[in-house]
Amino acid sequence: MRTKNYGEKMDVLDAIKARRSIRKYTEDSVEDEKIQRCLEAARWAPSASNKQPWHFVVVRNQETRKKLSEMHPYGQFMKDSPVVFVVLGDPDLNPKYYLMDACIATQNLLLAAHAQGLGTCWMGVIDASFENDMKALLKIRDPLRILCCVSMGYPDESRTSSRRPLSEIVSYEAYGK
Ligand SMILES: Cc1cc2nc3c(=O)[nH]c(=O)nc-3n(C[C@H](O)[C@H](O)[C@H](O)COP(=O)(O)O)c2cc1C
């Protein structure tokens, strides 16, 4: 199921609001150019002092995806998602902000995927009991950390979601006003 905006230009706010976490994908493989565009969007994320303390491992291999899916209790669908990005943060490049920066890059990646008709789902990994197992599987050196895995493919489900109203999450001039 491809979104109606597939292949068309999409307004940024529309893209932000229409993106949903997609956990079921068609068997269509994802074109290399689309993966590259996602990585390009991640690359251009802002980062503290422009340190860019991130790295992305692109996993297409079925056996590796199956192993990742078996390690992650809420990520079983990685087994059946054509692509998995494993997003790393590098504390050597910025000990204070590496996680924040890698999060921003990941959101850029999610939005670029959505704008190209692709579905994604972010799965948290950092500090999980299985983070080191994933590092060993992918030969990730210390002190790099795995922020998250992101599955990606053409959506085979449609989802709705909701958000807390602005009135609950915004104050003006001082908290609570
Ligand atoms: C830090 C983080 C960790 C998440 N971990 C998981 C996960 O392990 N498994 C999963 O299926 N979804 C995971 N999600 C997706 C959220 O469940 C989803 O973003 C949220 O329910 C809102 O839905 P939406 O993305 O469709 O708007 C995670 C999202 C974030 C930002």
Description of the molecule:
It is a single chain. This protein has helices spanning 12-18, 32-43, 62-71, 98-115, 131-137, 166-169; strands at 54-59, 83-89, 119-124, 145-153. It has one domain (24-154): NADH Oxidase (3-Layer(aba) Sandwich). The protein has a four-stranded antiparallel β-sheet, sandwiched between helices. The chain starts with 11 loop residues before the first helix and ends in an 8-residue tail after the last helix. α2 packs antiparallel against α4. The radius of gyration is 17 Å and the shape is globular. The model is unreliable at 1-5 (pLDDT under 50). The chain has six helices and four strands; from the N terminus they run ααβαβαβαβα. It is of the alpha+beta class and 177 residues long. It binds flavin mononucleotide. The site of flavin mononucleotide has 11 residues, from β3.
What would you give as the CATH superfamily? NADH Oxidase
Instruction: List the bound ligands.
Output: flavin mononucleotide
Overall 3D form: globular
Architecture in CATH?
3-Layer(aba) Sandwich
Name the helicity range. 25-40%
Number of folding domains?
Answer: 1
CATH topology: NADH Oxidase
Order of helices and strands: HHEHEHEHEH
